[in-house]
Amino acid sequence: MTTIAQQYSDLLGVYQEACNRHDIETCVAMFAHDGEIVSGGESYVGTEAIRAAHEYDLASRTLVEFRDFAVEDNVVRCAFWNEHELSRAIGTDGMRGTAEFTFTGGRIQKFLILPPDDAERQRVMTKAGPAFKWLRENHPEAVARWQGFDRAAGEAVTALADLWRAHLQADGGAN
What we know:
Elements: H1 4-21, H2 24-29, E1 31-39, E2 42-45, H3 47-60, E3 63-72, E4 75-83, H4 85-90, E5 95-104, E6 107-113, H5 118-138, H6 140-144, H7 151-170
Parallel strand pairs: 1-6
Antiparallel strand pairs: 1-2, 3-4, 4-5, 5-6
Helix pairs in contact: 3-7
């Protein structure tokens, strides 16, 4: 007999696979109609906001991993890793942290992305700092387009990755 914890873990496995295939329709269908994603203190609620967030992931070529599940009632806390194209271009190996999923009726009601701890933030910023500085100084208009959680912001992430790679190539990889 499958436990409720196993059911939630299995659902998150399906969600992870759909996210990494960038199967937007499957991802959106896994959320309640009034579901939400909370990231960086911003809340994205409802089907269209959930769709836009997954379009961001498609455009930014984001990959995710959920593991080490702890289940209490209808809430699953897990380790969370994500990496988008700019992270790959910079070489940060993505960001590691924690996420919480709240389920209602077999669907995701809330996907809460908790801020990374100080050590993880420091690890990423040590690698990303020079790239972010150069991008802000040389391509502020491209950096400004990386606002929100939709396809346009995701496209900006990929464009910034391309700019950084071109800079490294032209600079002989000195940064």
